Amino acid sequence: MRHTVILCLAGTLALSACGTRNGDAEVQRAMQDLNSIESASLNDVMLTVGDPEEAVKYFNGALAGNPDRIDLQRGLAKSLVRAGRADEGVTTWKLVIAHPDSNLDDRVEMAEAQIRANSWDDAAATLNAIPPTHETFDRYRLEAMIADSKQQWSKADSFYQTAVGLTSTPANTMNNWGYSKLTRGDYPGAERLFTDALRQDSTMFTAKNNLILARGAQRKYDLPVVPMTQIERAQLLYTMALTAIKQNDVTTGKGLLREAIDTHPQHFEEATRALRALEAV
């Protein structure tokens, strides 16, 4: 009987030990999963709201202990580009591309970094090496920019049109397309695109200012009907005044400068200085 009790106790202890070991392993796995989730979340934060230079330091530090992790390499490459260090970003993107887990989107990102580094031919070569079946918004947006740089207007228009159809937030792309039309001298086409961009995002001041440039180039010296704050109204009147003056419509320009000064809720130094200079002539 005593031997039976001992054997039972031994069996119980063995099962208990196995349970402890299994429990420890599960805890370790759970901790690893939690650390991975926390790391991924921190990576996302650093890429979106973090200061670019701080993000560069973070990813460099993380890579020191995990040099082969492609997510950290990507994070560093994106952060370098955001920090205005595009040349270094290109170098890091090349490391990402060489990683066995890289994908075609990485090549698109590298092409954007090359454009920011003013390496337009390299960017074109990078995009040309991507299969045409990889149809993404970013790919066509960059293709449009490269076509613009080569003054291949028909191709640029085609790429912009495709890019706009591949995103739910096309305002920035419409604004860029409009600016392309503006530089070509197609002022009515530019005006339409800036107006379309503002329908998508009525807060985009760049599109508002570009719209004034397009209208001013056609000698349309009245403000368009778009939402604007009082300060924006003053600034847009100032842009319109300068456009008029550039086209030798000096009297109109002076009137617009006075209106801009009167409209601005604070002292409008730039407009005041411009008006004084004109009245001194």
| Helix proportion | over 70%
CATH class category label of the domain at 50-118: Mainly Alpha
What percentage of amino acids are in beta strands? under 5%
Distance between the termini: 120 Å
Low-confidence stretches: 1-20, 30-38
**Would you report the number of β strands?**
0
On the 0-100 scale, what is the average pLDDT? 88
Assembly context of the chains: single chain
Helix and strand sequence:
HHHHHHHHHHHHHH
Biggest beta sheet attributes: none
Written overview of the protein:
It is a single chain. The chain has 281 residues and is mainly alpha-helical. The chain has a domain at 50-118: Tetratricopeptide repeat domain (Serine Threonine Protein Phosphatase 5, Tetratricopeptide repeat, Alpha Horseshoe). Helix content is 78%, strand content 0%. It has 14 helices and no strands. Helix 2 (52-65) packs antiparallel against helix 3. The longest helix is centred in the first third of the chain and has 47 residues, at 2-48. The protein is elongated, with a radius of gyration of 29 Å. It starts with a helix and ends with a helix. Residues 1-20 and 30-38 have low confidence and may be disordered.
